[in-house]
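We modelled the chain as a single entity of 183 amino acids. Its sequence is:
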Amino acid sequence: MSLQLQITFLRELDKLKGVVRQTVLADKSRHENTAEHSWHATMAALTLAEYANEPVDVTQVIKMLLVHDIVEIDAGDTFAFDKTGYVDKSEREQLAAARIFGLLPAGQGEELKALWLEFEAVESSDAKFANAIDQLMPFLHNVWAEGQGCWKEHQLTYEQVLPVVSAALAPHRLRCGNMCSSY
């Protein structure tokens, strides 16, 4: 029975490949999907862990980054600058988390949901770093794609983007030094 539930869950995760995000790939060829974003953020955390301002458990960070966007299967990707989308974002994501993690055997589903909740709470050192990486990747994609995608499509100015990115990369989350100032 557990295997059937796990296979059902894995099949459900395939839907992440169809959730299209606002971010354009670095080569400007198309928008990325949520599965690609999750993989890239996970690799960024593994690569940039030395820049965490506090000690982090990279394995825990990777787990959070792998599960944090699963809820987008039902809730969709809410664009960082979409004030209307944030009105009911938490409610949509809570419902999605209950349904999707509920596909797994109880203990396993609860474990993954706990990782998702930790990421959302942004309280632990691991969650702060995971959130910073999650915010960093769309920013880098926009820099690499010269604003093509969400910045140009939504006519966002530097003055609008900077506070959002700065908050995500605040010193208590990511110690980026010259890495961030070059962008």
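As a brief sanity check on the tokenised model: DSSP finds ten helices and two strands in the chain. Residues 125-144 form the longest helix (20 residues).
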